[in-house]
Amino acid sequence: MKKKQGQAEIIKKVLRYVRPYGVFLLISVICAAISSLLALVMPILTGRAVDMIITKGQVDFEGILGVIKQMALCIAAISAAQWGTNACSNRLTYDTVRDIRKDAMEKLQKLPLAYNDKHPAGETVSRMIADVDQFADGLLLGFNQFFNGVITIVGTLVLMLMLNPLLTIAVVVITPLSFFVAGFIAKNTFKLFKRQSAVRGEQTALIEEMCSNVKIVQAFSYENEAIARFEEGNEVLKDVSLRATFFSSMTNPCTRFVNNVAYALVAFFGAVLVVGGKLTVGGLSAFLSYANQYTKPFNEISGVITELQNAIACAGRVFELIEEEAETADAEDAIVLSDTKGIVDIENVDFSYTADKELIKDLNLHVESGSRIAIVGPTGCGKTTLINLLMRFYDVNKGSIAVDGCDIRKLSRKSLRAGYGMVLQETWLKPGTVRDNIKMGRPDATDEEVIVAAKASHAHSFIKQLKDGYDTVLGEGGGLLSQGQKQLLCIARIMLDMPPMLILDEATSSIDTRTELKIQDAFAKMMKGRTSFIVAHRLSTIKEADRILVMKDGNIIEQGTHAQLLAEHGFYHKLYHSQWE
């Protein structure tokens, strides 16, 4: 079980991403220091101007004009420095966020298939998009306000000590109470924001599931149940968000209350000192201004700390994804499979998806080059699992699978998978033109070769009827194409590539019977001389297979040709005749 990440651990990871952009951080701090220090000069100038107004008829207008000029220069310099702070903070934040997203995306490509089986796609998307955006907002707020606040606190403290040490001590003793208040609230809001991020991920997963399967939802009249599930999750998200926002919003009022108490006390004791002649009116004006500037960053920093709880919680979820255990890397001396003959050996293989549920046990199989192997059996017997093991989407728990005498764990995955051509029951088409989708396995193929492959798969006729033919742009998942048309494009993709080994998993399940007969003929030509694994439920389509494997509960219980298995009157005989009864 994974150890939960603490705030300190997450912050260390964030700083590792920030480190390469330290120059922007340095410039941002320098600009923040300049703007904060110049802002501290303003109360001094204001105090001077106040002291130049002695009484009616005794006003030093020339001196006040000089002070106004100095104030104008300060304001211009402060504006320029603040622009520099914001520009560098933005660059630092979004470069950091870009790197985090890049690492998360790279990790997604390296994660084993088991991760995708256990995590909804929408929840992963939520981590990549919503959580990273929330983290960016918190980080940007922190950079923009934190350094300014710290420098302002230190600067005002020094200047207040120079003006009146006694009043300064009163301010310093009271205002840190706001940090204790903010810290107490922040500690409790972190858990709430973390829960909020998790619930938001669950909501995103549900929305993605319902949107991507809208036809099924409508076909089974599942709309009301979908709305009910959404409303239930939405209610939980509302409650968690309200609690997190309520607790975080208490920070500012609480700290402001403490700081206003300090300000009132300073004003009272300062007035006493003025009456006693120990402080000028201008000096008190400057001191009150500094006291206000001193307490203001406490409010801002406490607000930043609260906002950072949300950012850190979101960052933690993204780092969990980045730190997921990647698929076992290929060995440095991994063999690149080439000139594949297609001899496959499965020896004493055990495999299960979970330790408590056994699936494949002591499976043995030898497949000669160019053989057509059909795999049949009831749902859940292990047919698709066997395909996953052949392609090394999963590694066997025990035993070995070899291609051309070499254990596939010693082969590079890329070369192993390039040796197979797959047509699955579930089609996948990327956004792009029809031509791009067919050329996916062979980007360098010519237009003539694409057309030949499309004709062989009987896709050419419907492609020509599309608005722009082979240049028709398909949307996500194939757009408005029928399931059968999508499957024909996937078949054309394989017929263009013509790899040495084939896997056909219910490859014609969505195609009409007449077209299927034509494609079966094309498949027969394509499979000639190629080792082929055919998963089929319609047993009439595999009569010509060299060997039929009958699987049940993860084991091969019968094998032979179609005629041999029928003659045995075993499990295959029952399966075959059940389709005609």
Short description:
The protein is 63% helix and 11% strand. It has 581 residues and is α/β, with parallel strands linked by helices.
Write the layout of secondary structure elements.
Elements lengths: L6 H12 L3 H30 L1 E3 L2 E2 L1 H50 L2 H6 L2 H43 L1 H10 L2 H36 L1 H6 L3 H27 L1 H25 L5 H42 L21 E8 L8 E8 L4 E5 L6 H8 L7 E6 L2 E2 L5 H6 L1 E4 L8 E2 H5 L8 H10 L3 H6 L7 E2 L8 H15 L3 E5 L7 H15 L3 E5 L11 E6 L2 E6 L1 H7 L2 H8 L3
Parallel strand pairs: 5-12, 5-13, 8-11, 11-12
Antiparallel strand pairs: 1-2, 3-4, 3-6, 6-7, 9-10, 13-14
Helix pairs in contact: 1-11, 2-3, 2-5, 2-11, 3-5, 3-11, 5-6, 5-7, 5-11, 6-10, 7-9, 7-10, 7-11, 10-11, 15-17
Name its key features.
581 residues; alpha/beta; ABC transporter transmembrane region fold; Rossmann fold; six-stranded mixed sheet
Write up this protein.
Strands 8-11-12-5-13-14 form a 6-stranded mixed beta sheet. A 4-stranded antiparallel beta sheet has the order 4-3-6-7, with no helix packed on it. The protein has helices spanning 7-18, 22-51, 61-110, 113-118, 121-163, 165-174, 177-212, 214-219, 223-249, 251-275, 281-322, 383-390, 413-418, 434-438, 447-456, 460-465, 483-497, 513-527, 562-568, 571-578; strands spanning 53-55, 58-59, 344-351, 360-367, 372-376, 398-403, 406-407, 420-423, 432-433, 473-474, 501-505, 531-535, 547-552, 555-560. It is α/β, with parallel strands linked by helices and 581 residues long. Among the domains are: 97-322, ABC transporter transmembrane region fold (Up-down Bundle), CATH 1.20.1560.10; 341-419 and 531-581, Rossmann fold (3-Layer(aba) Sandwich). 63% of the residues lie in helices and 11% in strands. The mean pLDDT is 81. The chain starts with 6 loop residues before the first helix and ends with a helix. The chain is built from 20 helices and 14 strands.
